[in-house]
Structures are given as C-alpha cells and as structure tokens.
Amino acid sequence: MRYLYAMRLRPFSIGTYPKKGFVRAEINVDVDGCNYHDLLIYDRRLKDEEVKEWEFEYLGEFEDEI
Predict the structure, then answer these.
(1) pLDDT for 8
(2) What does pTM read for this prediction?
(3) Residue ranges making up the domain that contains 36
(4) One-letter-per-residue 3-state SS of the chain
(5) I need a labelling partner for 35 at 20 to 30 A (CA). Which of 4, 18, 59, 60 fits?
C-alpha cells in the first residue's frame, strides 16, 4: 500500500518533508486543477501531527504497481 500527500505551501526540496517511509516525489503534477506544488508518496500513513507540521494534504492510498 502507498499513501499520497500533496505539498500545499512549498515545492519539494531538501528539508521540506519527513524522510521516514518516503518513496518518491512527483514534481509539477496537476491534480484536477488543484493548486499543489508537488505530490509525495510514502510506504506508511503519516501521523496527523506530521501532516499538520509539514503542511501536507492527505489525498488517499493506492496499491503499489510493482
């Protein structure tokens, strides 16, 4: 299972995301016209405190394609 988060207030860069469980970033992705900087994919669900601290938006979960 993978978990998808949107970066609402800043673009992906060093020090802008928690590293634990990080899989990859999708840069400059348009999600239904929403105004997100980038999308981050994790192999774990982030705690509510982490989502708030890093100013992410949880977009849902999906099955890994690999």
Answers:
(1) 87
(2) 0.87
(3) 2-62
(4) CEEEEEECCCCCCCCCCCCCCEEEEEECCCCCCCCCCEEEEECCCCCHHHHHHHCEEEEEEECCCC
(5) 18
Task: Give the Cβ contact number of residue 51 at 10 Å.
Answer: 15
Q: In what order do the strands lie in the sheet with 38-42?
A: 22-27, 38-42, 2-7, 56-62
Of the candidates 53, 66, 33, 17, the residue with the CA atom closest to the CA atom of residue 4? 17
Region for 8 from its dihedrals, namely left if φ exceeds 0, alpha if ψ lies in -120 to 50, beta otherwise: alpha
Count: domains in the chain: 1
